[in-house]
Amino acid sequence: MIVRKHDVIILGAGLAGLRAAVEIARKNPQADIAVVSKVQLMRAHSVCAEGGTAACMQPENGDSIELHAWDTVRGADFLCDQDVAMRFVTEIPDEIRLLEHWGIPWSRRPDGHINQRPFGGHSFDRATFAADKTGFFEMQTLYDTLQKHSNVKRYDECYVHSILIKDNTFSGIAAWDMTSGEFFVMQGKALIIATGGACRMYGFTTYSLTATGDGIAMAYRAGLPLKDLEFIQFHPTGLVPSGILITEAARGEGGYLFNSNGERFMEKYAASKMELAPRDIISRAEMTEIESGRGYDEPTGLDYVHLDLRHLGADKINERLPLIREVAMRFDFIDPIFAPIPVRPAAHYTMGGIHTNLDGATPVEGIWVAGEAACVSLHGANRLGSNSTAECLVWGKITGDNAARYVSQRKSYIDPPGEATREAESSIFKRFNSAGTENAYAIRNELHKTMDTKAGVFRAEPDLEDALRKIRELKQRLPHAKVADSGHIYNTDLINIFEIENLLELSEVVVAGALARKESRGAHARRDYKGRDDINWLKHTLAYRTPDGPRLEYIPVAITMWNPVERKY
Ligand SMILES: Cc1cc2nc3c(=O)[nH]c(=O)nc-3n(C[C@H](O)[C@H](O)[C@H](O)COP(=O)(O)OP(=O)(O)OC[C@H]3O[C@@H](n4cnc5c(N)ncnc54)[C@H](O)[C@@H]3O)c2cc1C
């Protein structure tokens, strides 16, 4: 078996992974760092981030870090750990300045200062942006910066299958090099998981095809608890019918939402914030309008409302929202300068993830998590737009810093457990011989339909129970899936099956957590339990894997500054 060794392994090369890699390389030039990604570096999902990165950059004009923290806590429907929010808002302004020093082309105000635009749920214009291609420029800047450091080795197009742990200490990962077809083990002293979110369990989603929650599922299988996974964010403006994101910046720049009666319906739901209310509120408003017959019909059932940018004018659309115009024209043959865009809520963000503490550390020694794969408890029950890329930067830095110090003290590697390694290898290669009777893609379609219709914006017990039954049936069927491609190199057929396996595992946790949580909070809206219930449910869900499905436990929320109040906009 091929065995490789690196001091620190960074699993994932999106914004969080790259920021962590840069931090370790700067802090500890002796550290030998591996960055592993199942796709080419600039194909990470982070390049899709469009609208901006939140930070308090203008205290002289009335913003403050406390206000940013308060907006985040209130937006999260009080399920956010407030010590986490304070750390976040304190550290993000320096990250924006660092990226500036590393060369990012932030959009500017006329006086040359970094510009900031409004975003939903923020009470100050604090989304720093680079037109509507913010994630792309952030990734490119970090990638450029990483080139200065010679102690980083990249493993692109390597699919990591499992995390190997011995005596509650990290020992390595098991991976499959798609380019050569080789299975290998990579031993390390420290691991940072930065594998992104899991919303590809839904059919109508803004996500890249590759964002399949692999790292979260791997950690869960390795015994790590997952936190608050039932909280899935639905973005109000998924382009119909593809689901491609129309950034919130389109409303930040002044776009309006209309129903089929021509009414700006947000007036009924959030009169003071209108189209810039938090996403959970707007998504529920859109679905209520559509379910009440005030949407537009779409042949496949993806009924929609209109996002209208026409009044912004061609110059503003071209300067601030060029990608949105291009996407609408290419995918819907609609030019937003002249016509409204059809939109509806699309699965967009995994608020939960692998349970970590304030430092991004997991209960296993030597393993940290950063970015969307983590649940450090910043976003609680509903993330505010532009707080995610910001989280990737802040906890990329924090976890990188901690891992750099850890490996400078820890001298030896731990041999990976033989049984787990053999199991990982055989679970890859035994599949090649499968003369399966099931079609994995049909299973994936059934999963998508189940999640879209039974665990979407609104939820209720009978639907969630149906969903759980269906997911368990699909889990039984997937091992019988036929692998049509028997080659070892670039066998995307097999990789797809691993990804579907991961999505099924995580869907079960989403639905079990949603079924158990008998209240409505943030993005988790139960038709049968309408109000927020702080007495019984102001707590985080932890899910542990067992052979019979997730075992749920609960831990308290850190309330350090603000007691929960009614959330009104
Ligand atoms: C369309 C869109 C627009 C968005 N716009 C914004 C925005 O404007 N502002 C904002 O704050 N947030 C935005 N978000 C959210 C934000 O982009 C993401 O939360 C963030 O980029 C996630 O970054 P990450 O580093 O955690 O993971 P990712 O960027 O998803 O990177 C994951 C990495 O892990 C690797 N990986 C995964 N599984 C494996 C495996 N099995 N083996 C090996 N490697 C693996 C991948 O190859 C990749 O390199 C947007 C989201 C979407 C969907």
Describe the structure.
This protein has helices at residues 15-27, 65-75, 82-101, 134-146, 214-221, 249-252, 266-269, 279-291, 314-320, 322-332, 387-409, 418-429, 440-454, 461-477, 492-516, 534-537; strands at residues 2-11, 33-36, 53-54, 116-117, 127-128, 152-155, 158-166, 169-177, 183-193, 226-227, 232-239, 256-258, 305-308, 341-350, 353-355, 367-369, 374-375, 458-459, 525-526, 539-544, 551-556. With 569 residues, it is of the alpha/beta class. Strands 1, 2, 6, 7, 8, 9 and 16 form a 7-stranded mixed beta sheet that branches. A 5-stranded mixed beta sheet has the order 17-15-10-20-21. A 4-stranded antiparallel beta sheet has the order 11-14-13-12, with helices on one face. Helix 1 packs parallel to helix 4 (134-146), helix 1 (15-27) runs parallel beside helix 11 and helix 3 crosses helix 11. It is globular, with a radius of gyration of 22 Å. The mean pLDDT is 96. Residues 11-17, 36-39, 44-46, 48-53, 134-135, 159-160, 194-197, 206-207, 210-211, 214-215, 245, 348-349, 371-373, 386-390, 392 line the site of flavin-adenine dinucleotide.
Brief descriptors of the model:
18% strand; alpha/beta; 569 residues; 16 helices; 5-stranded mixed beta sheet; 7-stranded mixed beta sheet
In helices, the fraction of residues equals 25-40%
Tertiary shape = globular
Number of beta-strand segments: 21
- Total of helices: 16
Radius of gyration, in Å, reads 22 Å
Give the cofactors and ligands: flavin-adenine dinucleotide
Residue windows where pLDDT falls under 50 for at least 5 positions: none
Q: Tell me the strand percentage band.
A: 15-25%
